[in-house]
Amino acid sequence: MSQPLEIRFASLAAQLSPTTVVLAASGPLFGSKAADLDEQSGGFLMRAAAAADFSGKARQSIEILVAPKLACARILLLGTTPKMTDLDKVHLGGRVLAAIRQRKCDAASVVADLPELSEAGAVGLAVALAEGAALRNYEFNRYRTTLRGDATGGEKSGDENGNGDGRSALKTLIVHTARPEQAAELYCQRSAVAEGVLLARDLVNEPANILGPVEFADRVAALTKVGLDVEILDVPALEKLGMGALLGVAMGSARPARVAIMQWHGAKSKRSKPLCFVGKGVVFDTGGISMKPAAGMEDMKGDMGGAACVTGLMLALAGRKAQVNAVGLIGLVENMPSATAQRPGDIVTSMSGQTIEVLNTDAEGRLVLADVLTYAQEHFKPRLIIDLATLTGAILVALGKEHAGLFSNDDKLAAELSAAGEATGEKVWRLPLGKAYDKMIDSKNADMKNIGGRFAGSITAAQFIQRFIKDTPWVHLDVAGTAMDSNRTDISQGWASGWGVRLLDRFVADGYEKPEKGEK
Known about the structure:
Layout: E1 6-11, E2 19-25, E3 29-30, H1 32-40, H2 44-51, E4 61-65, E5 74-79, H3 86-101, E6 107-111, H4 119-136, E7 148-149, E8 155-156, E9 172-177, H5 180-205, H6 213-221, E10 229-233, H7 235-241, H8 244-250, E11 258-265, E12 275-285, H9 305-319, E13 325-335, E14 346-349, E15 355-358, H10 365-380, E16 384-389, H11 394-399, E17 404-408, H12 411-424, E18 428-430, H13 435-438, E19 448-449, H14 457-466, E20 474-478, H15 501-511
Parallel strand pairs: 1-9, 2-5, 2-6, 6-9, 12-13, 12-16, 15-19, 16-20, 17-18
Antiparallel strand pairs: 2-3, 4-5, 7-8, 10-11, 11-13, 14-15, 17-20
Helix pairs in contact: 3-4, 4-5, 5-9, 8-10, 9-15, 10-14, 12-15
């Protein structure tokens, strides 16, 4: 959806673009290349920094125009955070792009160089900056037939709701580093993950009249071109499997349900048990007969954020040729009120054979997950299962938009995801499960009911899902506060965040990929 941005890597000796970003540490202190530029200008950069009270601290910036004896027409000095983590560097890349996009230029350079960095450290900085820039570059503008022009004649795409920021005609970002070839090679891995994030954002941002269950499934089917094996289950297939819980949700819509299955075979042994990722894909949720209030209902186009994440993750794993076997499954339905819709009080039979009394048709995502989780376990015998769903408003009450809620039957798995969340900034917070909560969903008329009452709504939803897990390490992530209308960050400025793709890719990379023979 975004204007394409070409990211290239060049040596520190290569010619800089007319618009160049130079990084400074507290002091300010420049890396070797920036120090050379300052020397060439007769110390002009340092004098300009001192005159502007620029100390090189994080989020400080100044612009220097037409510095003496330098070919660059414009130099932007950006401050940095001391002892940056990889995540800090990625976010710095987002700030670099934002600073450039406020100027009118079609190409720009950023010097990936800071004091006391080793060559390897400089390469890592370059790759992280590129990733952050790629993520920040995103905006959803497919349906805008005109873009507002700014005073300089450049195109400006931000709006009053903070979707995007001022955009120049930037087409190329050149990252200058000590080892450009090595940086380019490493960035291939990171760019594949970024592409997965952007796909997830696109899917969540699409309006529901464009992206129904069938259309979503069609987009998944197109991913065979990146090496995924894809299977789409239609309504007759779902009926044959006995997916009564999922199909019950879809009864009120004229648009038929689908289940999409994506497989990536990247492990050395094709018989290696796969990791399994399951996503809730309610393409629009009116609440069904238990109708939601009108205010804010338009946001329910994003009730498929879990499915979008799983799809983006599978693209990322295939794109970087992850050394793991993985399966992504998404249940795609639309929850609508009509003469054929499921009613409160209906009892449905899930694929597992367990019966469910549907007391509230707006608690529909757990019904979709119940059947897809059963299918995943019966057909793939996975090593572990992680499901993601924009499941409950209660998780927003508990955690706001800072963390996704994590529920698990496995301490090790929960700890691994927490560590991946800290590393990527896509944080999770573990909440409890237990028999006392489980009793809240017992039903007098069926094996269970789909709501547990007013209290502990996110927990009782997770307890419901756990009833469909059999002897498999499992995590449920409630992403209602993080997948859509989430907090704006340096690398995510729009309504859809693509949350979870980077988290789960890091989780896979850190704990479940086998290195090639001879590698450490």
